[in-house]
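U., I forgot to send this yesterday:
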Amino acid sequence: MKRGSAHYLSIVLFSISIVLFSSGGYIHAKAQLAQWLIASAWSQSTAENVQAKPWPWADTWPVARLEMPEYNVDQYVLAGSTGESLAFGPGYVFASAAPTEQGNTIIAAHRDTHFEFLQDVQKGDVITIHNTMGRQRDYIVQDMTIVDKEDVAWLDNNAYSHQLTLVTCYPFNAIQVGGRLRYVVRAVSREDISA
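Result:
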């Protein structure tokens, strides 16, 4: 009887582990598939100067492209930073400056998908942002900080004309979703640094 119970328990545990690994893989697969659909919407947006949705029922559209070739990063940034947008890609925070424009542009994403690479970013790295109207701006990483989610001083940091702020949850290897900490990467336009 004990041998049969152990066999049954091992089957149940194996089944549970398959389900857990599958759901984790599903999140990554959904994020990748969405980037392909968003790439098509980006092409339409830039060619026709429209807000092209990546799929008919989408409540978002691509507003920018974020590149860091040294980290193999080439991502489309979506309008809005709601949970629905962040499930498919980095999200542009509407209350911030428009991508490549004057002010502090803020982009958020999940730490375990699109912004996982931020844990490797170093001071001096270059982040390139393109907007849908063909403008491009290079930003140089100035610092990386860890803040409490209630500390939002970085939202208004406008010491430079053109600033880019990337934000995600922290720590990167946390098991629990959310948490109190945020990882903030601040970058300044190359033109502002050389001026």
